[in-house]
Amino acid sequence: MGYDIDRFVGYVNEGLLCSICRDVLEDPLQAPCEHAFCTTCIHGWLVHHSNCPEDRQVIDVSLLRPLYRYMKNDLNRLQLHCRNREHGCEMVCSLESIDRHERECEYSQIPCSNAGCTVQIERRNLDCHLAVCEYRSRECPNGCGYTILSTEDTQHNCVAELRTELELLRSETICKVEEAKHEMESRLDSQRRHMVQKESILQNEIEELKSQISRLMSDVRSLMAVERQHRQELEQAELEKREL
């Protein structure tokens, strides 16, 4: 849907009206036949039709294009009243800037920011409403540190609240201690398994070293036996030499 034509000041060119809703174009698109429509209007039309609502020429969503620049400029220069006019806003501004104004307009109806409150209030009156809203929150005047709603004032008991908080803290502490305990036990088990694996590896390495030492000792004994044999052969050769 477009902008209500009754909001505009002065004459509005026929070419700037939506061919479907007959209001001033909002977020406009243009067909190849140069008829212009609000985006929402033409998309809704093409769900059930495949032609232009003005001249019945065949059109498709893919053929729609943005409005010509000169027409867009003419559209943006139109002057209109704020939609909150009936609430007291007297602002008249260009179509190009109306959205920005209405987002910040003091006469806009906005929801109360307090959780649980369903009141819609003018932006300019929001602070006054918040000061008396039954859903407003404040810190306990007795100094317990709790934030309470005005509707809970008669039910608030500092001692009971603090006792409940203490129980919650105690439960959380117990849970955290248990979690830390389980984590430490898990780490110890992991380290224990790692140490057992290391011990097994070291034991295997020791056995391998013992085996190597044993082979070396055997080789040494063999070499010593060969040396004795060579010495005996040399002594025998020396005796034979002397006899000769």
CATH architecture of the domain at 5-104: 2-Layer Sandwich
| Rg on CA atoms, Å | 47 Å
Class per helix and strand makeup = mainly alpha
Give the biggest sheet.
Answer: 3 strands, antiparallel
Proportion of strand residues? 5-15%
Helix content: 40-55%
Query: Would you tell me which CATH topology of the domain at 5-104 applies?
Result: Herpes Virus-1
Report the mean per-residue pLDDT as an integer. Answer: 87
InterPro entries: Znf_RING, Znf_RING/FYVE/PHD, Znf_RING_CS, Znf_TRAF
Zinc finger (TRAF-type): 101-144
Domain TRAF-type: 101-144
Domain RING-type: 18-56
Description of the molecule:
With 244 residues, the protein is mainly alpha-helical. Among the domains are: 5-104, Herpes Virus-1 (2-Layer Sandwich), CATH 3.30.40.10; 109-149, no CATH class. The chain has five helices and nine strands, in the order ββαβαββαββαββα. It has helices at residues 39-48, 69-77, 95-104, 126-132, 158-243; strands at 28-30, 36-38, 65-66, 79-81, 92-94, 109-111, 120-122, 137-139, 147-149. The strands form four sheets. It has a three-stranded antiparallel sheet with strand order 2-1-3. It has a two-stranded antiparallel ribbon with strand order 4-5. A hairpin with an 8-residue loop joins strand 6 (109-111) and strand 7. The mean pLDDT is 87.
